[in-house]
Write a structure and sequence with these properties.
Belongs to the inositol monophosphatase superfamily. Its cofactor is Mg(2+). GO terms for molecular function: inositol monophosphate 1-phosphatase activity; metal ion binding. This is DUF4170 domain-containing protein. The protein is 25% helix and 27% strand. A hairpin with a 2-residue loop joins strand 1 and strand 2. It starts with 9 loop residues before the first helix and ends with a strand. A seven-stranded mixed β-sheet has the order 3-4-5-6-7-8-9. The protein is of the alpha+beta class and 372 residues long. It is built from nine helices and 21 strands. The chain folds into two domains: 285 residues, Fructose-1,6-Bisphosphatase, subunit A, domain 1 (Fructose-1,6-Bisphosphatase, Chain A, domain 1, 2-Layer Sandwich); 78 residues, Alpha-Beta Plaits.
Length: 372
Amino acid sequence: MQATERRFSDRTQLLREVALEAGSLALAYFEKGTVPSWEKYPGHPVTEADIAVNKLVHDRLMGAYGDYGWLSEETALSRHTQRLETVWCVDPIDGTRAFMSGQPYWCIGLSVIEHGQPVAGVVHAPVLGETYCAERGKGATLNGDPIQTSTREQEDGCRMIAAESMLNHPAWKVPWPDMHLANPKPNATLLRMCWVASGTWDATLVLWRKSDWDLAAGTVIVNEAGGIASTHLGEPFIFNRSEPAQRSLIAAGKALHPLLVERVKGVRLPDPNWTVRPYDKTETTEQKPMADMPEAKQLLHIVIGGELKDVKGVEFEDLSKIDFVGAFPSYKAAYDAWKSAAQRTVDNAEMRYFILHAHRLLDPETGSHHHV
């Protein structure tokens, strides 16, 4: 262990040790070439390796700090966890698609969340030989050496990790300047954030919802490397809320970050923990999603989706191609269906799904309006 790693607390050292152990287990599966896999829900694969790594990490971390909450991509959510002040947040394998296809761009992401904020994080990419560590107030390292985000002060020419189709979409009123885009672009969000933290890339942008385990470890690493990780509105992340997800991601150095926020802040993306006005900035207090609220007296909820003409609006490109997911008798049922459909559109900002609440029905024959 390098001397620079000794700056971290015993708990962060534990995260690092467990990440390395989990990486060795995942690498053994990876080197087999073929790993049994299935879909958790449409568009979201999981492998036998994900489950095995999840169990190893759970046993090691909860064995050491059993009074912490447990928040993991491969474990059922627990309301008990949301009531605790300190929580382990784990992505056993971020970049499962890359893992399955034999690409090296996957990693193990482990973090500690206290009062909604990540205070320590480790991201370990076994094939790449990269291990990132950070602890609040103690800096960030790559393989034991201190790292720092870039000091770029302009968008033109910046090194960006983002979907090219999103940046080139004609709906942008002001076209994006020339930038050097990552190719290939890793689908592991934690890796993208770590590459920004190390200064290898200037920024990463995701205009779509990401789960807490996709962001927590990367957030503390970026912040401790001197950068900022936030939603596209510039909001700081609040983790371990009722719905463990954030509306979007911008990670960049402190000079570049506000320029990117200014450019994309007009894009309307819902806060997964919204109540009444989903496109407003998130308050810094806990919010309760409608999925957890008592059912309102609404009997019809329709879930639809399609490609938008403008990523900043809600007008569909072609009404004949609307995807009708279904009609549901409760918000909870509609929300579950929306979530499953929406998760299929990662990195495609113009493809969006919505829940339509029918408050009033019109009978064309009689002209009567029936309030639902």
